Amino acid sequence: MLRHMPTGRTVTPGYVVTYPNREKASSHTVRLIVVLLLLISAALMLAITIGGWSKLQGLKPVNFIWALIYIIVAFYIIKRWARGLLPIAAAMAILLLITAVIAGTGASGTSWFDRSNFGFAPAQSLFGGTGLGANTLGSLTVLLIPVQALLIFFAMYGFAQGWNVELEVPEDEARRRGQRSTGAPPAQPAGA
Fold first, then answer.
1. pLDDT value at residue 106
2. pTM of this prediction exceeds 0.85
3. Which candidate, 65, 113, 136, 153, has a CA 20 to 30 Å from the CA of 48?
């Protein structure tokens, strides 16, 4: 079926594959910031969903799935330098930013802050107890706006850093530069 595909990476003997853009301090910093923003976003979404469960309108499971996706993306970015997930995280952040602006400002009718007035029942949590107060839920929703804006910025900045750039350099030069290799074994000559 795919018989012309190579079975693995072929590295010239005596050379190692390095990722020079991953060694930069700015790349490490941006990666850490993106992961923290993803985790903060997931925590805010879960707090709003669980604390305002009885007052949310539809698609409640989507909030849990969205938070889970953010956590999975954060894991792959921190462990595997998954540069391809950065635009996906930014796109999801754009959608959540739009939703937070609409919900936080009350552009769709009533905001969380309006629910603290007379005549509105308090929110019940997912677990049946009293949920978070209307002003707290409103503040968390508004807090999502700058977090998502920062996530969009840093995800796209990280994408532009080129974490995926590979260089094949001699082993001694890589050691001299202090760069870590991928650990890819050198190619073995074909036996007769």
1. 80
2. no
3. 153
